[in-house]
C-alpha cells in the first residue's frame, strides 16, 4: 500500500509542472444514429414503420477538464438532453384516430480521456451514464361511438370520445460510450471557443412507467363537450394501469396487465456542439 502511495505521489509531482484545469459550457443539436423502430403509422392502406432515436434533440453541457501535460487530460461532463418528438403511433382509420409521440428529458454524465493532437485539435473518448430523467409519451385519441354507445349516452350518432394522457417511462441504469473530435480557437490567455462533433452510443432498458395525466371527454358532432372528465387520473377506464412494470420474463398464464416484457429504446446520436472554454492559470510555460 505504501509503495502504491509513493508511486501516485511521484506521478502527481511529475505532472504539477504542467497541471492545467479548464471549464467549458456548450450547447448543440444531435440527430439519431443507427435509428431503431420507435413506432408505426396505420391507415386503411397498410402499416408503416417510424425509425429514430430518443437521443435526438437539443443538449447543453458543463464540463471540467484537467490536463496532466500538453497532450493528455481527463474530462468530467454533466449534460441535459431536451429530446425531439418521436412518433410512437399514428392511426387514421374510419372512426378512430391516434396521435402518440414520445420525447426524452434526461440528465447524464460522462468521464473521458482527452488527447490533444496540437493546440487546436483534440479528441476525447469515454463512458456515458444517464443520471435521471424520463421518456415522456403524449397521447391523443379520438374514437367515434357506435349507435349503441350513442344511445346509452343519449347523444346523436357521430359523437365521439376524446382522450388525452401523458405517460412517463423510466429506465434502468445504463452505461454507454461517448467519443468526440473537436477544434478550439484561443481568443486570449483565458478564453477559447470550440466546435466539436460528438457521438453517443447508448440504449435504455425500460424499468417502469406511470400515467401522470389522463382525461376523457364525450364530444358531440358539433364539437360541444357533452361530458367532461368521463375518465380521469383518479378514475381510469378498465384495462388501463396507472403504473406498469417491465420485466424480463412473464409466465404463460400471466393475468397481471400491470406487467409487460421489457424493451430497449435507442438513445444513440451524432451531434455538433459549440461552446466557450475558460482556462484557469496553471504552471504551464506554454500559453496554449
From TrEMBL:
Q: Which InterPro entries match?
A: Beta-barrel_OMP, OMP/PagP_B-barrel
Membrane-spanning segments: none
Q: What's the short name of a Pfam family annotated to this entry?
A: OMP_b-brl
Keywords, alphabetical = Signal
Residues forming the Outer membrane protein beta-barrel domain are 9-219
Top-rank taxon of the source lineage equals: Bacteria
Leader sequence segment: 1-19
| Name under which the protein is recorded | Outer membrane protein with beta-barrel domain
Q: Which organism is it from?
A: Winogradskyella eximia
